[in-house]
Amino acid sequence: MLFTSTRNNELSVKFSQAVRQCIPDDGGVFIPSSIEDLRRWIYYINEETTFCSIAGTLTSAFIQDEFSPIICETIATDAFPFEPKVRQLDDKLFIMELYHGHTGLQKDFGVSYLVSYLESTAYLNGGSAVFLDFTHGGLGALLARALRGKHNVKAVVVYQKGTVAGISDEDFAWNGGNIYPVEMEGSEEEIKAEISKVFADKDFVARYGITVSNTTNVCRLLGQIFLFPYSFAQIKNKVCSDIYYACDGGNYGTIMAGLYSWRFALPVSGFFVPATAALGTNFSGSPVVLDSFVNLKDRNSANPVVPANLERLESFFSNNSLMMKHFVYPVKIDASDEETAAKELFTKYGVYADKETARAYASVKQSNQNIFDEEGCVVLTAYNHPSFQSDYCKYMLGEAPDMPDNIKESLIKVDLHKPYAKTYEDLMNIIKELK
Questions:
Q1: pTM above 0.85?
Q2: CA-CA distance, 326 to 321, in Å (whole number)?
Q3: Which of 3, 17, 19, 320 is the most exposed place for a label (fewest CB within 10 A)?
Q4: Reduced to 3 states, what is the DSSP secondary structure of residue 290?
Q5: Which of 157, 71, 160, 168 is nearest to 116 (CA)?
Q6: Burial zone of 319 (CB within 10 Å; 0-12 exposed, 13-18 middle, 19+ buried)
């Protein structure tokens, strides 16, 4: 599979270059230029097909001649010692839980896959990679676990002061581990601005193999595509109708992963999502991306630190809101809708819903599509373990779920006893030390 740019469809690069380069020189983001039709394979997968098997098969189909099927299977096997859980709640409602990984976060899937890909390909082809990311805490704990035992991938993870958590002494780069957590003073926006200055030095980025672990990196996004054929395989023999997904918007990577799944012939009928200022509807009910009012050529370059999946969404539908209307359903919901949805999930199905899952369910219930009154079924996507929002659950439902030990460990605060970084130059010096 070859990749092009959202801002230059004449560009054509292999998967490995798209992953390593992260952002095209034209300032857009990488997207697949073509995807193989996998209709015959889809017919054969079922509830006995493992998540690893699906990930390995799709890796081979997408990467094709860059690496052998055996290497592709190795990448998937190393990435996924865990898998999603898909449960049937009633005849027309399923839930796909994405919080059974290293740290109870949806991003466990994409980040683990990206780490495995970089480690495996660096071992075969030489070289190394360094992640440079901002985190509120969860990403640092995840990278610490995903990078244990790796030899070719390291990470510099930047926190606001006092927010480092979930990293053991063995993980620290100064103790022989693969992660270098660093604290900076200032707001999130100010810190991200300093990180962006590092990426602006393209020679430095290329010399030290710097990339990001968010969905700006197309490999991270690819790791989320596997979720859709897996959920389909789990339910295909239980339904005979259209399959819709309901999910919180987040950074819209999940929607893009689902749309790419549809492109290789997976039967996906559409996505319900709470409307936001970034992705809402116009007077006729068609979805509208706020950024689309500014021509791509007149926009600033994509920032590696900030995922640009809405630009991918625009590109996917060629900025045609009428086409988008048939697949993406932004729904306006309010606090009352959210509360009703959270309580219904708990009382009817015993599901503890965090705020995002409640909003996703509310978007289906409040939609004018009437899916539950017709022949469609819905897969509700639950991103993160509800125990992260125990206070919310307690307030909404009167009780909260138990927190698994792996999540408790990811939340333990850590005192680094290291000086704060002040500027992007301090970050560059740290990266030099790692090498």
A1: yes
A2: 9
A3: 320
A4: helix
A5: 71
A6: middle
